[in-house]
Amino acid sequence: MRVNLPSFDEYFSIENNPQYIQAFEDLQKGLKNFTRSSRRNYSRYLSELKTIGKMSEEIVTFGGEKLRVDFENFLQTKLSAKPEYAVALDNIEKAISDELSSEPMPAIIRPYRVSSFMALILGLMLLVSIATISRRAISILIGSIILLTGLIISVTNSDTLNIFVHSGSPALNVNVSTGLNVWFLIVFVGIIVLSIFTVISSYMKGRERV
């Protein structure tokens, strides 16, 4: 920006030097504050845009056709309301263009996100603690039977999952069409079988002593 000043003006006279110097110093401070604020706001804008872009990519990556259409309409409705949002809308649409043109990917839900399987994991940890510390055969056997029963019930009802999102939000009930992770079942059942084997082994050793 270029500012043209008159070659002579009463305001810029020698006698008025302290006043206009102070005025220009105040203007300079104001411009510096404006520059710092603009840089800070721009940095915040880029950070928010990156976060929103990443979330948008995740939504359309795993979302079905109906969800994708609803999400695009949501973006258009919210970001087309003001002209200053046009750049942000354009950037987000570019970020999700590849995901929109590809088939939706299946979402991976961790067992600790599902309330029923989280209870099984906690029960399994308790069973391992009992088997390691107290080694009480009856407690291990009862715990193993309860966990196996709970696993069978959870697997039977695994087409509908009650998912924990985050603290303060209600649980999300989702109907799913894919099965459980095989490795989770193998490890879970394997630990229970190992616990039962420990009980049988302890019982057999007790009989040998008798």
Please tell me how large the radius of gyration is. 33 Å
Count of β-strands: 2
Domains (count): 2
Q: What sort of overall outline do the alpha carbons produce when their principal axes are compared?
A: elongated
Order of helices and strands: HHHHHHEEH
Give the N-to-C terminal Cα separation: 100 Å
Strand order of the largest sheet: 1-2
Class per helix and strand makeup:
mainly alpha
Helix proportion range: 55-70%
Largest sheet: 2 strands, antiparallel
Q: On the 0-100 scale, what is the average pLDDT?
A: 76
Q: Count helical runs.
A: 7
In the predicted model, the low-confidence regions spanning at least 5 consecutive residues are: none
Range of strand content? under 5%
Task: Summarize the structure in words.
With 210 residues, this protein is mostly helical. It folds into two domains: 91 residues, no CATH class; 99 residues. It has seven helices and two strands. A two-stranded antiparallel sheet has the order 1-2. α1 runs parallel beside α3, α5 runs antiparallel to α6 and α5 packs parallel to α7. The longest helix has 46 residues. The protein is elongated. The N and C termini lie far apart (100 Å). The mean pLDDT is 76. Keywords: Membrane, Transmembrane, Transmembrane helix.
